[in-house]
Write a structure and sequence with these properties.
4-stranded antiparallel β-sheet; binds ligand 2BA; alpha+beta; about 45% strand; 8 strands; about 20% helix; 2 helices; Alpha-Beta Plaits; two-stranded antiparallel sheet
Length: about 110
């Protein structure tokens, strides 16, 4: 068995939950925050049998889209780092999904 940890954008999370549940793939949704943008995103914990990992990944691929987002980056003026004030906008491309696929030693329901 594998545990897929999928970090996705909030906009895609509802459709992805529905898509996975329709296929009988169990999933748990967590509200999370990205370290760089410090904005909300969604982390899904998806436990699947080894032979269904590709199916789960292709479901994620079909739903999650990359998007461009504007952020402001701190600037340094005279050695002083500013945040918000004097910051300039920078465009970043947030990926459709960031995935970690881990091997599961034991899967128990008690
Ligand atoms: P954030 O950390 O908020 O990052 C959002 C997007 O900002 C990233 O998209 C990337 O395009 C950009 N970015 C991140 N760090 C950067 C940096 N140091 N310099 C310039 N641009 C940077 P993604 O790479 O698609 O990541 C989307 C979200 O996935 C991340 O949100 C974070 O929550 C998670 N993530 C990405 N890599 C991770 C990792 N190695 N470990 C844990 N979580 C990760």
């Amino acid at each position: 068995m594998k545990l897929i940890i999928a970090i996705v954008q909030d906009e895609d999370s509802s459709r992805l939950l529905t898509g996975l549940m329709r296929k009988g793939i169990g999933v748990t949704k967590l509200a999370t925050t990205g370290g760089f943008l410090k904005a909300g995103n969604t982390t899904l914990m998806i436990g699947v049998e080894d032979e269904r990992v590709e199916e789960a990944i292709s479901t994620i691929e079909s739903v999650c889209k990359s998007r461009k987002q504007l952020t402001t980056t701190p600037t340094t003026i005279s050695g002083v780092t500013t945040s918000g004030f004097n910051a300039f906008p920078v465009e970043v491309t947030v990926g459709g999904a960031t995935l970690f696929v881990l091997s599961v030693d034991q899967f128990l329901k008690i």
